[in-house]
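Illustration: ABC transporter ATP-binding protein.
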Amino acid sequence: MDAVSAPPPAAVEIVALTKRYAAGAQPAVDQIDLRIASGSYCCLLGPSGCGKSTTLRMVAGHESVSAGDILLDNRNITNLPAAARGTAMMFQSFALFPHLSALDNVAFSLKMKSVAKAERHRRAKNLLERVAMGHLAERKPAELSGGQQQRVALARALITEPRVLLLDEPLSALDPFLRIQMRAELRRWQKELGLTFIHVTHSQEEAMALADTMVVMNHGLIEQVGSPHQVYNHPASEFVARFMGGHNVFALNDGLVAVRNDHMRIAPSTGEAGDMGVPAHVTDIEYQGTYVLIGLRLTGERPERSGVSVLLSEQTFLSRPYEVGDSVRLSWSETDARALGPGATRPGEPGNGSAASRPAPMAALAAMAA
Ligand code: ADP
Ligand code: MG
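Result:
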């Protein structure tokens, strides 16, 4: 970014945000800082229990904050009630009321605010039309397809005119086919409405497909923030490389590196003295259609770091097939190796990559082919 162009305005700014459910316990969310650009699609991504939902619920006002601040368009909303924040929440599998029509589902929160019936129906009808559901306003959720239900849930969340839409695993209860359809639709609506979306998911694939900005969390800390491309191509730590998948981690003399499994080179072992590369043997072969995924174990590496994989195009594999049990040599171009940092640490804690905790490098890597 050049010096004159200012960063886009932060719709949501999180400052040293902390949640401690029990005194003395490790915080569920530990002093995280985050700026989410206005009108962007932000995904909070991480394994189960890493603090994603807690973070989202604190932004929504459904969970109290132990320390820190939440700002929406530069207004401190940390202690405001949920309804006064300018945020709205869309829940897992949409959580529509089964006994209410689409129209009454959408109008529900206005009813709670004692808006007169004619007015709330008018506004709900407008929103349903906006999401191309006006003609089905009288249907009950069970009479709607998954996609139509999602649009009703979206209209219901939008009726309070939020600036920020919060989505907690909205797609995780859907079958895989519908999930892929629905995420394309969420992405389209976000762009069309121009709202800021904060979407919690444990699925790397979902976050990659949706996000302008991915926030990778682990143990209540943020490991990395970046575009899907940045995070996938430059994982900041071993945790991110492994969590994103598709990467191998190697311990070299000067630290850990990650190499994408589609950037690996594989060659049969010649058994001769000049054999270059990291020795390994094939443990499984998975045919995936366009690609073939070869699972391997590195020779002489600790069990937790010995599993690696190589992704070959179907054509490459067929031109030189491997079999389970084959001895091979692995290598990569130096430009494809990403140095990994120590990862997020709590104040006062040594990093994962500190000299004391770093594993002994693999001797064989001295012979790595360039
Ligand atoms: P995620 O959504 O990433 O799976 P959560 O934010 O739900 O994670 O949980 C983060 C941590 O906080 C977990 O260790 C979880 O057990 C704990 N936790 C979540 N909700 C509560 C609660 N209401 N009371 C106590 N601990 C909780
Ligand atoms: Mg959760």
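Reading the tokens back as a structure: Residues 21, 28, 46, 48-54 surround adenosine-5'-diphosphate (ligand 1) (CB under 6 Å).
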